[in-house]
Amino acid sequence: MKQKRLSAAEYDAEFDRLSRAIVEAPFEELDAARVALADFLATRECETSFFLVRADERRLQTASTVLDEAATQCSSARFLAALEFARLRFPSVPLDGALEASRAAFARSQLEPLRSGQSATDAYAEQLSRAESGSALAQWQAALRLWFGLGTKRDCKGARLWAEKAVAQGFAPAAFFAELDE
Q1: What pLDDT score was predicted for residue 147?
Q2: Domain ranges of the chain
Q3: What is the pTM of this model?
């Protein structure tokens, strides 16, 4: 069943309620309260993206305590861009873990699913073959697999090379590799 979209005021009220629950929770209930906030952020990915863009530093600081967990489930480019924007606005708020988790979730969402019985290594070999033939999409996907070590050894330099080839062909999503730290 599809959830009703929350207005900004409704979202903020629920965020504040869940944040207070963490602060007020007895020690033995602290993990459950943190999970509740992380689940809220993750299951409301679209609204959370807008929240990250408009949040003040205090709310962003509170969200950062569970964003690493929530970001593993948030695979949209919008969410990733909102996290990047929030990091630029408030560099003192620790968002690096959430950014890495969101980048990985986004990368996984961009890859073709494995066929039944296909290994990640075989999938990488297929994509590499298509990438070498000049497919910008395959170059992008090879870059993702190399960056995250999916079916191959992690190779950040190799990932950047494939991403640059994809960008040179006009495949804009691959441009985000230019900003990533190894």
Answers
A1: 83
A2: 8-110, 120-179
A3: 0.68
